[in-house]
Design a protein that fits this description.
Helix content: over 70%
Structural class: mainly alpha
Shape: rod-shaped
Pfam family, one: Muted
Order of helices and strands: HH
Number of strands: 0
Organism: Polyodon spathula (North American paddlefish)
Protein name: Biogenesis of lysosome-related organelles complex 1 subunit 5
Oligomer: single chain
Family: Belongs to the BLOC1S5 family.
Mean pLDDT: 83
InterPro entries: Bloc1s5 (IPR017243)
Amino acid sequence: MFIMCFLLIDIGDIQSRLLDHRPVVQGEIRFFVREFEEKRGLREKRLLENLNNMIIGANDQTIPKCTEAMQHRLFAALTRLEAANHMAQRIHLREQEAEQSTKLHACQERRKAEWEAFMKEQTVKKEAVDEEHAKAVGRLSTHYSDMKKDLTKFAPF
């Protein structure tokens, strides 16, 4: 029975060593905490203080300088952009005026051509009217000369 009891104690001890990892994990945790606090703690603290100082410096000096420079350059860029926009509008107006001028010139040329065609047509019509008038004058003059001859026949009475 003693052996059995010893065997049970050994089995319990073996079981606790195989299945119960709490003492090992706790030892690792203690080692990690000690390592972090002793060796890395000061280094991490210095690193965090340096980062904090850099952030404070950036907030106090760098960001305002950058903001001021950005506003100045944006104002200059906006001024140049407005000038370029104004120039583009002037160029656009000149192009429109030139286009209207060419349209006006083309319209004037077309009106001249229409006027010349109209005048030629009027000249042709005038010549036709003059010719008809000349024929009518010729007919009337022959008619009146015939009447004059007839009158001369009756004149001796």
